[in-house]
Amino acid sequence: MKKTILLLLIMVFTLSTFFGATLTVGIRYFTEHYILGNLAALLLEEHGFNVVKRDGLHALPSREGLITGQIDVLAEYTGTAWATYLGQEEMITDPDELFKKVKELDAKNGVVWLDRINVNNTYALAIRQEDYEKYGFETLSDLVAYWNEHPTEFVAGVDHEFYERPDGFFAFAEHYGLDIPESQVLTMQTGLTYEALSNNKIDIAMVFTTDPQILKYNLHVLEDDKNFWPYYHISFIVRKDVLDKYPEIEEILRPLTLYLNEDILIRLNYRVDVEGLEPEVVAREYLEGLGLID
């Protein structure tokens, strides 16, 4: 009898340990990361984990939190990890190769990169839809070929950082062979480029490729056909010791790789930034729509 009771107690303890396991999901301070963090948290909760969300973080503190064990799961960008955390300067123009190298290097830090999500949140240049229909520009090379022949026809709008940074506007211009006067490039506060483009104050705007303002203002993003800007593909990263203990995390988060893409993430961002919904609400409704949570 005592042996039976002991076995039952062990079983109860084991089950409570599993179903009571707590994971900390790190969430950075911008909309996209709030959505990604809540997507991960909801899926983990659906599969029996208790989840603590540490939100409002900046990039370096969130990374440090993962390395030191304060954070277990975090959405990360390949370009950020490659240049900022891993200190690499080589420009890699193949997103799969970049992901592979980041994954290999970060393994030495006890960090496991799960599947790469088909979302690249990097810099880009955009034009109004009516100008796309007028000129037919598909790529940055198309734009540059025309712009070099008509150097004063277009005015570009960029934020102050993009104007000055080493992978910013003038580095792009050199890479693509664009030769225009500096007077044709205006600087403004981050985010105002969209409104300025919509109001015809500028003709070309610096954007981020998953920004919902692209959808709001019906802009056409030009393809970076010469691969100037780094890739910032998203992946969830997990500490190795955590994944060794709970290997099911990888399968639990795999649907985000299968179902998320740039267009979908732009729309999710739009629901938060433009329609004013809470990130957790947007994440929950998306997962419920896919039948991934109840």
Kindly describe this structure.
The chain folds into two domains: 2-121 and 232-289, 3-Layer(aba) Sandwich (D-Maltodextrin-Binding Protein, domain 2); 123-221, 3-Layer(aba) Sandwich (D-Maltodextrin-Binding Protein, domain 2). It has a five-stranded mixed beta sheet with strand order 2-1-3-10-4, with helices on both faces. A five-stranded mixed beta sheet has the order 7-6-8-5-9. It is globular and about 65 Å long. By secondary structure, the chain is an alpha/beta fold. The chain starts with a helix and ends in a 5-residue tail after the last helix. Helix content is 50%, strand content 20%. Mean pLDDT is 91; it is low at 1-18. The protein is built from 15 helices and ten strands.
Give a short overview.
With 294 residues, this protein is an alpha/beta fold. The protein contains 15 helices and ten strands.
**Kindly state the mean pLDDT as a whole number?**
91
Classify the secondary structure makeup into a structural class: alpha/beta
Helix amount: 40-55%
Number of DSSP helical runs: 15
CATH class type of the largest domain? Alpha Beta
Numbering strands along the chain, what is their spatial order in the largest sheet?
A: 2-1-3-10-4
Cα distance, first to last residue? 40 Å
Write down how many β-strands occur, each being a DSSP E stretch of 2 or more residues. Answer: 10
Any idea what the CATH superfamily of the largest domain is called?
A: Periplasmic binding protein-like II
Beta-strand percentage?
15-25%
**Named CATH topology of the largest domain:** D-Maltodextrin-Binding Protein, domain 2
Quaternary class: single chain
Low-confidence stretches: 1-18
